[in-house]
Write the structure tokens for this entry.
Amino acid sequence: MSMALSEENSLALQDYLATRREWVERALAELPVWQQGASDRLVEAMRYSLLDGGKRLRPILLLASAEALGANAQPFLPFACALECIHTYSLIHDDLPAMDDDALRRGRATCHKQFDEATAILAGDALLTLAFELVAQPVAEVDPAVSLQLIALLARAAGMAGMVGGQMLDMVSEKQEISLSQLRKLHACKTGALIQASCITGAWLAGGAMVFRDRFAEYGSAIGLAFQITDDILDETGDSRLLGKATGQDQQSSKATYPRLMGLPQARREAEIQIERAEESLSGLGTAADPLRWLARYILTRNQ
Amino acid sequence: MSMALSEENSLALQDYLATRREWVERALAELPVWQQGASDRLVEAMRYSLLDGGKRLRPILLLASAEALGANAQPFLPFACALECIHTYSLIHDDLPAMDDDALRRGRATCHKQFDEATAILAGDALLTLAFELVAQPVAEVDPAVSLQLIALLARAAGMAGMVGGQMLDMVSEKQEISLSQLRKLHACKTGALIQASCITGAWLAGGAMVFRDRFAEYGSAIGLAFQITDDILDETGDSRLLGKATGQDQQSSKATYPRLMGLPQARREAEIQIERAEESLSGLGTAADPLRWLARYILTRNQ
């Protein structure tokens, strides 16, 4: 059975992604903090990396998860922006010479190449801090006690036992062979935790009960893993012009990847299994959850 | 008139600082997050820098500000720990080769010297994130809506228009001459904002009304500036064995300092003026505010 999206659903997804992306782009570009009178150079570096035309996957997952439960997601845009700030800071720091030492990101010079290392470190720090300033803004639709729980969830997903911890495992694993289960743990932390938090947060903001939050956690975990596997596959087989970054990087650095540890066909199959798992977690939800369903399929078949 | 502390008050202050420092040390050492199962290396680096016997000025200012308004400050220890996490992360990142390139901190190897640059960057990132996890924990004594406001305050003080912005100004100003007013702005952001936030947070947690929060903001701003001026003076005149770091660093790097821009006697006088301002901001408060009064005097006359 083909897991590709029908042309109709593919167009509907593109339309959905385009409108939600526009919400996010506008909200990011117009954050009141840009007027706070901070150092011009710092603001320039933050905006250079934040407003660079990324996919906005995490903010859109938050919005789509809230909408899947019938909510109007627009009031939750500050939370969506916070996720993108955290994602962007992590890319800036990961690209640093002491980390992955990347010169190119989304088709442009990385932050430390465009500015300098000190500025890139500080721009990352400032974006991480900004994320928490954003989620601490009161939102009329959200009980402050829920906001507090979401801040704790976000901090855990982004922190030592989540994204930062995953990056640490990644650095350590470059110097040694790791097993498939270690690779899974690494990715569950490094990319999975924040993607999962995006989905849970959307469901929670929409007033979803614990049982729903658990199902969105499952969805997020499945597509997070699928996203990482397809990322590895694209690095091996993809087109660097479409991706906007050099391919074959993992190969050169003898880094552990799913295709390398399982073989390419098995890695593809594993990604499909995760997408099936994602779809199952949404079973029983109505058409409002369709964008999440389409998105899962899209992750599987994307070429950039 | 001498602004030195009497021997009696000096002993009372030492006693106060020792007990509050012990509260903070224990709370930091026993944070539940150390058991979260993160990468051993990351946890080790975080604890290496966090549990290194610092002065704990910011946490103690929070506790003392709450106590000055008659509160029991122990329930607020998670907030106090968060301040120290943010302070420590800023030191780790400031010490990096791309920033101040320091090998020694508080008498020990800096984090990137003890571990490596990637680990130091990530340990800093994780400590900053941890701070927000800590302040998002519900505290029975604190209304969640107040907690949210305190998180926003903390993020602003630590972020692009506060501490990170100040460090950016500091990096930029190394390459050009700056004026005294620019130096004040730099320090108001780089060190003043977080010190001020510590005092405001303590007063706010204690239930202090806006008028009190404004007075603690004034106190924090004054001692923050005094602290920075005495830091510059100590760098010029201090004993590197007592300070646990190399002195004369600023001189070597031709960095702008108060002694350099105003002359040493005028810098000393300026620090005294700030301490008088700090004392005035506490006028009318009873003996519960004495530790804050003593602390102000102590900052002026410290030799480490």
Remarks:
- The two ends of chain A are 23 Å apart (CA to CA).
- Chain A has one domain: 7-301.
